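Problem 3 from the worked examples.
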Amino acid sequence: MVGHFKVIWRLVYGILTAGHTMLSVVALIALGLWVCGCVAIEIITKDPDLASDLRTEQIVEENFGTLGRSCLTLLQFATLDSIAQVYFPLIMVKEWLLFFFLPIMLFLSIALMNLVTAVLVEHALEHAAHEAETERLKTKQKIKAALPALLDTFQRLDVDQSGFITKEEIKHVSLEMLPPKLLDHVSVDSMADLFDLLDVDNGGELSQPEFVEGLSRESIFQVVPRRIYCWAHFVIFTFKIKTF
């Protein structure tokens, strides 16, 4: 039950900490819409040809009649919400308006929205790294508490009491012999796989320091990549859904 609340808290925390970024983006969008709305009043609303042409007269009046309408219309460009019926007739009458509408679409709907995604993903990765570091410290404490049991495990695995364990000695032993506090952090299917993972020099045998230090190292450093990957995947997937 506690695990579910931790997941919910991570999501809520991510939304709360993204508030500053979102407010900055909203302010930037509002400023951009206001500037472009003022320009639209000058080059579209006050253009006599557009105001008198039957194809564009109603569009100019309904969409660019006032500064407020101009900003609301240009907001559609940020979301790409049925904008063809607005800009297409205007460009047919005044071809140079393409150079007004195209930068708005590129800046508001593509560049700015992708920038928001990139900033939030970066923030999510930083949060995941911080959380992973906290988890790593907790794992260190678990390892410290499990150290006596880990040394006892090595002694039981060292059947011939040679001070070394070989793959033959442990390949038929169950993983449940490992301390439960460490077992959750080691991604192997058998003791033979664990031996291959810890035997970095391919010497065919593990001393007590190699066994203890290697198992501790794997337990600690598997925490970070998994946590960061999960956060990054969640954020990217979420914004892909919102974008499309």
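Problem 4, a separate protein:
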Amino acid sequence: MTPAEVPGSATSLAEVERQVELRTSERFIASLVPVVIVIMILMAGTFWLVPGGRISALVALVGAGAFAIVYVLNRRGHRRGAAGSLAVIALVIPLFEPATTGNLSTNGLFVGIATVVAALVLEHRRQLLALAAGGVSLAVMIAVTSPESTPPVTRQGSLVSAAALLALVLLIVYALLRTFNEMSHRAAAAQREAAHRAAALQALNSELSTAIEQRAAALSEAIGARQALAAKLQESVVRDPLTGLLNRRYLDENITRFLARDASVAILDVDAFKAINDRLSYRIGDQVLTQIAELLAANVREGDLVVRYGGEEFALLMPATGAADALVAVEELRAAVGNHDWSGIRPGLQVTISAGVFSPGVTGPWSAPDFATAQRMLGRADDALHRAKDHGRNRSEQLTS
């Protein structure tokens, strides 16, 4: 996983870079400060040896000691290092009071301003170090601007004065460069953080869109499955489980739609079906019914409807069919059953059907029937079926009134 993929990685990288830069600065100060302290001690020794320079020597020693204490407190990370450093500086500064009998030069004012600026732009530990360095440098400047108390070698315009000014200039340059680098690092870190957040937001939006699409697909699939299940359940309600034909419930719900003007109906019954069940078994009887249903469905005319009416009976609805055409259609179905080879179910088995047809014609109360009229039409077809049974079975009888 790349840093850009890890939450907060941009901020972490910027923080690491910043810590590296801070450690580099700390190492620089750690190597520079002891050198400055040693130089100040050497200067104190020089002042002490020069006639009239003992006050400057004491000032240099006090400043070096204060600087060393502040450095040690902050270098070792003492938990009260900040308070201790400020206390040391507050105690040392009044010791410079005897050296202020002369007038402060522009250089002295420059030292004070530089110290304040450095303390403002640097971080906490560097503020303390800058204050300490500024305080010592200010003490040196006070000393070199007091001709009455300093030897000629340390007076204004001398090598010591120039070194103090150079140190202050370097301090200001360092503070400005570090401030610029800090601002650059922060700007770069902000840009990286913004880019990281934008990438994370884009990835989150992409994941959200994918999740929504997946959820929508799953919901659509669930709705489709539920609709299919509902259709299947509805189909199971109106379809006969044994033969696969539509059942009487479907017939009752749709009979008036099929029996429009000039329609005919028929009832078909398996001959001697009770004997088949009794002599051969109900399993054979079920196979016979299933086979008859397949034959009827395969040979029925387009537009006609064949349903399992109940038991071994089947109903046939023939919209827009007159008496002659209705009888022909029923005879074709009866012949398909009678001519079928039934040996596949039982060797020597012969199955026939009888049919009763009712064709009322286009006039009279039978035209465009309602449900009650449609049921009476089926009743008349059943009357015709009984006539066929009475005349020897395996035949069709038709009534027209």
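Solution to problem 4. The beta strands are 264-270, 305-310, 313-318, 353-358, 396-399. The two ends are 89 Å apart (CA to CA).
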